[in-house]
Amino acid sequence: MSAPTVYDVAERSGVSIATVSRVYRNPDSVRAQTRDRVLEAARALGYVPSGNARGLASRTTGVLGLCFPDYADPDAETDAEAEAEADDSAVMLYSDQIIRGMERAARRHGYALLIAASLVGGPESLVAKVAGRVDGFAVLAKTVPTEDLEVISRRLPVVMLAGPREIDHLDHIEVANSDGERELARHLIRDHGLRSLAFVGGDRESPDAQARFRGYQEACREAGLPVTDEPDLRAEMMTQAEGVRATDALLDRAAGRERPGAILFANDQMAIGALHALERRGLRVPEDIAVTGFDGIPLSRIVRPSLTTVRQPMRRLGEEAVELLVRRLANPTRDPVSLMLPVSVARRASCGCG
Amino acid sequence: MSAPTVYDVAERSGVSIATVSRVYRNPDSVRAQTRDRVLEAARALGYVPSGNARGLASRTTGVLGLCFPDYADPDAETDAEAEAEADDSAVMLYSDQIIRGMERAARRHGYALLIAASLVGGPESLVAKVAGRVDGFAVLAKTVPTEDLEVISRRLPVVMLAGPREIDHLDHIEVANSDGERELARHLIRDHGLRSLAFVGGDRESPDAQARFRGYQEACREAGLPVTDEPDLRAEMMTQAEGVRATDALLDRAAGRERPGAILFANDQMAIGALHALERRGLRVPEDIAVTGFDGIPLSRIVRPSLTTVRQPMRRLGEEAVELLVRRLANPTRDPVSLMLPVSVARRASCGCG
DNA sequence: TTGAAAGCGCTAACAG
DNA sequence: CTGTTAGCGCTTTCAA
């Protein structure tokens, strides 16, 4: 009634369970004749080796993991335009690209990939579930309580992605947020001659958003423009809806005074919201005002005007993560590594380059 | 030196291993005071429950799986335009969307998702690896030898996606290929008044491609147009390059005679190849000739002219797959289900609707 | 080349 | 509420 085991296969083929095991693990160590008998019995019984038992006995799983936050933009989801008319396509998120990258790389190394997003009100520690079933895993910043990570990373290779290292003995990969935004702001200032900029940031706790703001500040400083200590506005979740609100707030605030020549958003989603808001107000982009994002999500090139942004190499992030994990698995004591992946500015229509 | 176990935690906190286990499995069944002692010990030791041991003892994993083919379009990959300039964005594939859908749905049900693509020359049976580590899994058609599936599905819930059922006791979900293509052809005939159509199909073994051709035939029949037994042309892999070749072949063949008013391709990739080929020949789409695809990949709306196509609900496919798996897990003996998901025609520029 | 036996770390009755 | 006791199905020495 229950699933067949090595014992069943062994019995049916007249060998010991050790031999059955060998057939699956290292076929060449078994006489061809014996092997065939075993395989035949296995087939007849519908035998499938238990990954759990294997893992338990051998202390490896052949699986790498990824924990990522539930990044779904709720606005994009409920939006009839995005959901009903749904090309899911446009809504591809970071996590999807990281997954792609990791899956590819993992496959090359003979690993499968276990993915799990932190469910918002998740009861059980997401990470524990993953951690218990993989040989090593990557974590997107802010997905898992540092405290948990602290404990787990003592027993298992962990690589932190796209955030500050937080725990100093971990491998870690980040993206050149600051460089990218500085580059972008420079472009606006130097190539488009804009001198009145506004920056819409994210949560103060978001290292990415903060780094981007720093890049913006640097560009302003270089150009001799006024440098603000804080973004002109902050948004918690950095969603499209917040982009709309931020834009309205900024423009209302500027009413009467001179309107900024460009608004730089800490991510694409907000910038796209801004595009909508501006259109509603009858302002033309980029003629009346330039808009930029950050991330290079697919939607950014589909919206009209197409969005000038900074592309993050998310897929590569995933690939590098796997490389780091594999390398650490091979050599658990090597020193922690910290990588910074370069980004590139995508000059498109929303800044006037289209 | 090695990872701490329940025994270590039990000893350090002065309880039995059973209590430690309870703390993780059902915290409320342990007195708060005891629980805290255990948790503290666990923290101190860096204890992480072994998923393998848990799975082995409880006979469940809390993980669902997905096996998908290595779908990368080699043409799209090597293409400098797609790889170097790389917005991965445009290259999002079915599998990515299915993964999205499954991950979401799995999460809702408290499952994590294990994904594995069949590596081309893969040694070990991909599916065995997955099968041994999950409570149930979905398989994209043509990914796994039917023979293996036959064996495995006797022990584990399996749902077949986007293909023929192949094994009759499996749950299975397909997409209304035939309906979609019929709808599309009708639109061309009725709304655009086209009466001379050509169809470029795929491999005779591809059920999807065949079903699409049938839909095309039906529309022709309804409209009193000549009905061919075979597609005007077939392509093995249905890549862009083949789309180019097919288009050239078709047009060369028609040289002198009347050129078809529209070419319907069995998928988007070929249709996009056709767009290139036609441009090269100086033919305008849709004025001189209409072109349609099938799938609704992201690229289809980005190309110029944007491609009229039939959108497949890939994400929903993933969601439904999880629902089916969960339901079968709850009731292993219920009759196999077969779902057909509806598709929708996306009328865009390449047929003259843009 | 094959077999015997001892775990791997946890859950699941069943007692208490 | 907590402890005892068997396994779960496989890998892995160590012998034969």
UniProtKB/TrEMBL annotation, chains A, B:
CDD domains: HTH_LacI (cd01392), PBP1_LacI_sugar_binding-like (cd06267)
PROSITE patterns in the record: HTH_LACI_2
UniProtKB keywords: DNA-binding, Repressor, Transcription, Transcription regulation
Pfam hit, one: Peripla_BP_3
Keyword Transcription recorded: yes
Entries under SMART domains matching the protein: HTH_LACI
InterPro entries, alphabetized: HTH_LacI, LacI/GalR-like_sensor, Lambda_DNA-bd_dom_sf, Peripla_BP_I
Domain of life: Bacteria
Residue span, HTH lacI-type domain: 4-58
This protein's name: LacI family transcriptional regulator
Organism: Streptomyces niveus (Streptomyces spheroides)
